[in-house]
Write a structure and sequence with these properties.
With about 210 residues, the protein is α/β, with parallel strands linked by helices. Helices cover about 30% and strands about 25% of the residues. The chain has six helices and eight strands; from the N terminus they run E-E-H-E-H-E-E-E-H-E-H-H-E-H. About 5% of the residues have low confidence.
Length: about 210
Amino acid sequence: MAKKKQKFYVVWVGSEPGIYNTWDTCNAQIKGYPGAKYKSFPTKEEAEAAFGDDLRDHIGANKSPKVIRTIDQSEVIWESFCVDAACSGSPGVMEYRGVWTKDSVEVFKKGPYQWGTNNVGEYLALVHGLAFLQQSNLLDMPIYSDSRTAMSWLRNKKVKTTLARKHNNGVLFDLLERAEKWVKTHTWKNKVLKWETSKWGEIPADFGRK
């Protein structure tokens, strides 16, 4: 009996967007979820590339052929913006910032905030970066993030944090509510791109604390 080939499942819209290597784990994210969007891919590389794309490139009436390829160092778009966050502990003290990709010159830095998480910081940095690019009339400039979670929250226009609200982190939840409202009331043309750390090294906005 021929061995069944493994598939990799991308969940763009579901209980917990991400990449899953079994149907059961994928199904757990989409079962009973209104408007769930998902698709299987034959390799992990294709699934990872697709997860960073607009889901309309892969499913639905408007899907278009997509060439999946390995991106090398020369393909970094240096005329771009990038964001990152750092958190000491989880939860812990968190801060985030945005810089120009080409020369790492810092444009904004926020924090430190008490009792936050890296995912929350990455999301706030990404939304802050998009708002900054709009305000600066840089409507076509790409923005890089190395966080798939932050990108999925942005794409789904919904924050899915497990962080609990406490007396010392109310300001973070206020910022999350403002960010979520901004995402739901604005549109943008800026491409939101995944920074491939394994190929290019740390993102230029990295805090250098690893």
